[in-house]
Amino acid sequence: SPTGDSWGIFTFLCAALCNLPALPALNCSEELGAGQSIQQTYDLTRYLEHQLRTLAGTYLNYLGPPFNEPDFNPPRLARAERVPSATVDLDLWRGLTDNARLAANYRAYSRLLCYLRVLDGQVGTAELRHRLSHFCASLQGLVLSIGGIMSSLGYPLPAGPAGPPAPPGMPTAPNDFLKKMDDFWLLKELQTWLWRSAKDFNRLKKKVPPAVVTLQLEARGF
Amino acid sequence: PISPRSLSLPDPAVISPQDPTLLIGSSLVATCTLSPDFPLKAEDLYWTLNGRRLPAASYAALGPSTLSVALARLNGSRQQSGDNLVCHSRDGGILAGSCLYVGLPPEKPVNITCWSKNMKDLTCKWAPGTEGETFLHTNYTLKYKRRWYGQDNTCQEYHTAGTYSCHIPKDLALFTPYEIWVEASNRLGVAVSDVVMLDILDVVTTDPPSDVHVSRVGDLEDQLSVRWSSPPALKDFLFQAKYQIQYRVEDSSEWKVVDDVGNQTSCRLAGLRPGTVYFVQVRCNPFSIYGSKKAGIWSDWSNPTAASTPRSERVAGGCDPKAGEQNTTLRRELKQFFGWVKKHAYGCSNLGIKLYDQWRVWLQKSHKTRNQV
């Protein structure tokens, strides 16, 4: 819906703009507090989830049946496991430190962004290219947002995949059908990560209230 | 639906041909060969095309671990990413797949038209040759070169004026003919359009006029005055401009065009309806470029400007209201005067309002004859 999109775009812009100067400076975070940034990042993941539904629908229709059938569940080939999976043991997930939790999100989305950008370069129709580039821009905002939170909490950023789109040791699919399967799993993984991130940021929200962060910043002499 | 299972390399099966390109109406025999260490047999397999199971009657076992399928008179691909031909195990699991690209070669692009904005660049658009679909993704490349010498250049900026368009932003020479053509290519072949030859100076257009103002002409109910500024590029280049105005009534979609505006930057519209809102637009044509008599290409119309004609106080009749009023008052007074004269003056009985009326008629008649001269 148009109203939904405007709200979402506004939230995204806030998140992106607020967190850009936060790396590595702490100006924005000092004023807002990491608690507020976490809320914005949570909102951003919800917005992306909404955007992904439309993008995935269009893309899977482009791939054609059976890829766009609701119960389609192809085998997951070894080569397709290139993004760290969002699904993780529940106890393991509960026990994650804030740093580990944020880092996992940061790493996953950085990787996913890279793969999506490669897709953008290859895809056939103008409509798809337009949707993909819009989504990549929003996803970039999410990565920056997470990085901003990590910096404001004093955590080091994980080394991002600044290199070529395909990380070393990951071959591109040998034929067009396998490539379609890779694309399918990429979108599925993206969807799963967005579902998981909402839970991650909800958890972080409760653990990092603004007041606590202010104290921490004061203690560090800011 | 099965739960996903991680399959280790090598692939459980191989399809041949893998990702073929075919002409519409052709037939195909595809084979699915199981990997030697895969514990299945040919009779455990089945085929689907775009999610639909293919009839067992079209299958043939070519060996213990190879099953073929015959596809006849293929239709154009359902999606440009290729039709999905999949080899399945009995329980529905996907063993291998192949994308079939079925379509037609492109037809040569047609109707290439180009224009240059202020002699600085060149934009061309064209139409794809095919009326129907080719079913395959078709790439278009616009190429150009200077006639008699120079190498082929390829246009880089596409979709600037619609899907089938390209923009050449710089390095264009004047006073020299260019050859321009469009190549369409897809998996089944290439088609090249006819070559169009043009000189940049022959296809020049410019920006629409700016600062278009429409105002009333005093109290005149049927006229509006239009004023505008010539486009700024005119100053830099040796061309003159001619203009065209179009206007319409607010609630109509029919534009009236004023063609003979010439190179002035103002014009008066006449014969308009009183008390009506009009929308006015102006456009410009650069001509006499470097002295040639050729006209250029009309610019876009300026944004519509609105204005309304004044409306008179009285209903249609066209008479000057003030004069009419005076007439009535004067006549009334005269009538009263003559009535008084009849009562109090002797010998002026011929004076009466009737005489006054006859005088008024004579006055109008003489006015008409005077004006007709």
TrEMBL record, chain A:
Entry keyword Secreted: yes
InterPro entries on file: 4_helix_cytokine-like_core (IPR009079), PRF/CT (IPR010681)
Cross-referenced SUPFAM superfamilies: 4-helical cytokines
Single GO MF annotation: cytokine activity
Any one of the GO CC terms: extracellular space
Keywords: Cytokine, Glycoprotein, Secreted, Signal
Pfam families found in the cross-reference section: PRF
One GO biological process term: positive regulation of B cell proliferation
Principal subcellular localization: secreted
Subcellular location: Secreted
Keyword Cell cycle attributed: no
Signal peptide segment: 1-25
Superkingdom classification of source: Eukaryota
Functional description taken from the UniProt entry: In complex with CRLF1, forms a heterodimeric neurotropic cytokine that plays a crucial role during neuronal development. Also stimulates B-cells. Binds to and activates the ILST/gp130 receptor.
Subunit structure, as described in the record: Forms a heteromeric complex with cardiotrophin-like cytokine CRLF1/CLF-1; the CRLF1-CLCF1 complex is a ligand for the ciliary neurotrophic factor receptor/CNTFR. The CRLF1-CLCF1 heterodimer binds SORL1 (via N-terminal ectodomain); within this complex, the interaction is mediated predominantly by the CRLF1 moiety. The tripartite signaling complex formed by CRLF1, CLCF1 and CNTFR also binds SORL1.
Family: Belongs to the IL-6 superfamily.
Name this protein carries in UniProt: Cardiotrophin-like cytokine factor 1
Taxonomic source organism: Dicaeum eximium
From TrEMBL, chain B:
Coiled-coil ranges from the UniProt annotation: none
Cellular component aspect of the GO annotation: CRLF-CLCF1 complex; external side of plasma membrane
InterPro entries xref list: FN3_dom (IPR003961), FN3_sf (IPR036116), Growth/epo_recpt_lig-bind (IPR015152), Ig-like_dom (IPR007110), Ig-like_dom_sf (IPR036179), Ig-like_fold (IPR013783)
Localization (cell): Membrane; Secreted
GO molecular function: cytokine receptor activity
UniProt KW keywords: Disulfide bond, Glycoprotein, Immunoglobulin domain, Membrane, Phosphoprotein, Receptor, Repeat, Secreted, Signal, Transmembrane, Transmembrane helix
Membrane topology term: Single-pass type I membrane protein
A Pfam family reported for this protein in Swiss-Prot or TrEMBL: fn3
Region Disordered: start-end pairs: 303-325
Domain (Fibronectin type-III) ranges: 108-203, 208-312
Keyword Hydrolase among record annotations: no
Biological process (GO), any one: negative regulation of neuron apoptotic process
Cross-referenced Gene3D superfamilies: Immunoglobulins
SMART domains given in the database record: FN3
Residues covered by the Ig-like domain: 4-87
Keyword Iron appears in the UniProt entry: no
Record family assignment: Belongs to the type I cytokine receptor family. Type 3 subfamily.
Protein's UniProt name: Cytokine receptor-like factor 1
Organism, as annotated: Dicaeum eximium
Lineage, broadest ranks: Eukaryota, Metazoa, Chordata, Craniata, Vertebrata
Gene: Crlf1
